[in-house]
Amino acid sequence: MLHELLLALSGHPSPLFATSAQDSSSPRAAEDFPLLSPSEAALLRSIASLSEVHRKLKRHLQSIASTHDSIICRAAAASILHLHLARFQQHILQVEKKILTKDASIVGAYEIVPLAAVVGEFDDWHRLMKWYWNLSEFMLGTPGSGHGRCTSAQLIDKLRVESQTGYPEIENAATELARVAEMAWLRQLTSWVVNGKLPPYGGNDFFIQRAAAEEPKFTKDRNLLPGFVTANTAASILFVGKSLHQVSHHQRLSQTTPALSTPSVSDGELASSHLQHLASLTLPIASSQFSRSIADIRLSLSQNVLQHLLPLRDTVRLLKCLRQFFLLDRGDFAMALISHAEERVQARQQSMSKLLARDAVKALQGLSIKDAELSQTLRQVWRSLMAKDDDGEDEVLEYAQSHVSLINPRANTSRPSTADSATEDAPEVSPISFNNLLFPNPTELNLRILPPMDLFLSTRDTATYSSISSYLLAIRRAHQRLNELWKQTAARRDLQASRTQHAVYRSRNTLRATAVRKVWATCSAAIFLLSETAAFFEGEIVRGSCDHFQEWVQQSAPDLDDSTTSNTSSQSTRHTQRDPETLAAGHRAFLSSLIYALLLTDLPYTSQLRSLLGNVDNLVAYFVRLLGIQQKMDGEEEATGEASAHLIQEEARISSELERARKKVDSDLKSVVSRLRQLDQERVGSTRYLDLRTIERGDFEVWKGGGVDRLLMKLEFGRMLADDYAIIRGSIE
C-alpha cells in the first residue's frame, strides 16, 4: 500500500483512488476499504488530492511548454516541469529511502510505518503544488481563470508580486521562476538591442512590434511591457533597435560611404560590449540597474555609430526648416502662402459662379482644392521666395523645397498620436481644427521624414508642427484680411460725392458711413487683438523657445563618467555631441512646452478663437460684398438716375447679414479676452509654465517665459458699450 501511495504521488494512476466522474478535480479514497477509519480516510484524501494535482499539473505544463505563444511562458513551464516537480519527485524518493532504511523519523516500533507520518512528510507541498497549479492555469488561460493566454509581461509581473506573499516556499519558487522568465525575456531583448532585429521566436509577445506599413516602422506595445521597464527606458530600447536597424540598412545601400562602412568600432566589438552590459544584470532585474545598462548601451551606440549616421549639422538644418516654415519665423513665407492661397480661392470662386449657373452639382463637387493645385500653389510660393533671395544659395530653403509639402490631411493623421511618445503626461493638442481656413477644404503643411532623420523626429512631432503652423497661419491670415479692408478704395473715399457735389449723393454717403461705423470699430478691435496675439505668439513665444532650444542643441553634452561605455579614444573627450535620443527627448519637451505656451492645449480658448476667425471671414466677405453692391448702385444711378429694386433689396439683405456678423465678432472678441483672463488666473504657481520632469543629467529644461499675463498686458483692449462700440485704452478690467 505504501508503494502505491508513493507511485500515486509520483503522478501515476493508482487503484487506491477513484476520481468522481462529476468532478474530476476532487479525488477521493475508494470505498473498497471498509476497515479504514475516518481519520485514515481523511489522510488518504490528502494524498489523493496532492497526487491528482501533480498529474494535472504535468499535463498543463507539457501543453504550455510545447504550444504556448510566449517563449517566456514556455521557459517558466519547462522550469516547473523539469526542476520544481523534479524536486517533488526527489522528495518522494527520499521518503521511500527512509522507509526502506527504517529511518526512525518515519518508521515506528515493530517496523510499522504510520500513515500520518507519511502524509506529514508532504504537508509543506500542498500549498506549493496548489500555487504551481494556479500559475499554470494563469499561463494557459483556462476558461475558469477568467482571462486569455497570458503574455510575458503579465507572467513576469505576477511572479514579482507572488515573490512577496509572505510564504517562504512560494517566495522562493516565485523568485526562481522570475529569474528564469526574465532570463528568457533578456534573450529576446538581446536580439533587438544588440542586432536590431525582432526576436525570431515569440516575436508577437515582445513589446517592440513592426507596424503594418510599406517602410519598416517599429512601435511599442505598452500591454507587453514588463512593470520593471519604465516608459523612458522602453523608449531608449526602441531607439537603440531602430538605430541598429537603420545602420544595417544604410550599410547595405551605401557600401561606399566611409562614415557608414567604417564606424569607429567594429560591429563585433560593439555587440560584445552591449552583451556585457546585459550579462552584468542581476536576476531578478532591478529597474534602476536595467535603466542604467540600457542608457550605457544607448550612449555607446550614439558615440560610436550614430554621430556618423546623424551628424549635428543635419539636425540643426532640420530644426531651422521647421522654425522658418512651420513656426512662421520666416515672415515672407507666411505672407506669400496666404496671398497665393487667396488668389487660388478667388479664381476658384469666379469659375464656380459661372459653373453654378449651368450645373449646381458639379459646382459643389468642385469646391475642394485638389492635391495638384496645392502643390502648384506651394511651388509658386517657393519661386517667389527664391526671387527675393539675393545670394541664390539658401540651404534651408532648398531643403524645405524637397521635404515640405502642402497636403489634404487624412482623417487618421489630422491629430497627433501618442504611440511614439515616451512622455506619458505630454499635453494633447486641442481637437479644434484651424487647417480649413487657408483653403475651403482642410489643408496643412507636411514634412517628409526620411531615415535616419526619423531617429530624431517622429510622426507625432510632425503632426504637432502641422497643427501649430495651421494655427499661426489662421491668425495671421485673419489679420491680413482685415488689413486689406482699408485698401478698399470704395470704402475710404466718396468719389461720386466729391466729384458731383450733389446733395443727394452727399446724404447717401453720410448714411452709409454712419451705418458701417460700428463695423469699422469692430474691425479695428479685431485687428488690434489679432496683431498683438500674432506678435506675442511668433515674436516672443516661438522666438524665445526656439532660441533657447537651439542653444541647448548646439551645446556639448555633459561630461561622461569613466564607467560610460565607449570603446574609442573619444571617451576622454569632454565636448561631445548629444546622442539622438537625448535630442529627441529634449525636442519632445520643447514641443510640449511650446504648444502649452501657445494655448493650443486649451480647448475653450481654441474653440473661441476658431469661432472668431471664422466670423472674421464672414464679416470681411459681407463687407466686400456690400461695397460691390453699392458701387453697382452708384453706377446705375449715374447711368439711369435710379438703382434697380433688386440691388436695393440685396443691399438691405447684405447690410443685415453684415451687422449680424459684426455682432458675432464682437461677442467672440469678448469671449477670447475673457478666456485669456481666466487662463491668467488658472495658470499660477507650478501651472504657469509647462514643467516636464527632467529624466537624467543633461536633459532639456523648457523655456520659462511668455506667460498669459504678458499678452494681457499688451492687449489694452476695449469693451462693449450699450449704445456704441469703443476701444477704451487702459488696463483690462
From TrEMBL:
Annotated localization: Cytoplasm, Cytoskeleton, Microtubule organizing center
GO cellular component, one term: gamma-tubulin complex
Domain Gamma tubulin complex component protein N-terminal: start-end pairs: 2-310
Record keywords, A-Z: Cytoplasm, Cytoskeleton, Microtubule
UniProt keyword Signal present: no
One family name in Pfam for this protein: GCP_C_terminal
Keyword check for Cytoplasm: yes
InterPro entries for this protein: GCP, GCP_C, GCP_C_sf, GCP_N
Family in the record: Belongs to the TUBGCP family.
Name of the protein this chain belongs to: Spindle pole body component
Source organism (scientific name): Sphaerulina musiva (strain SO2202) (Poplar stem canker fungus)
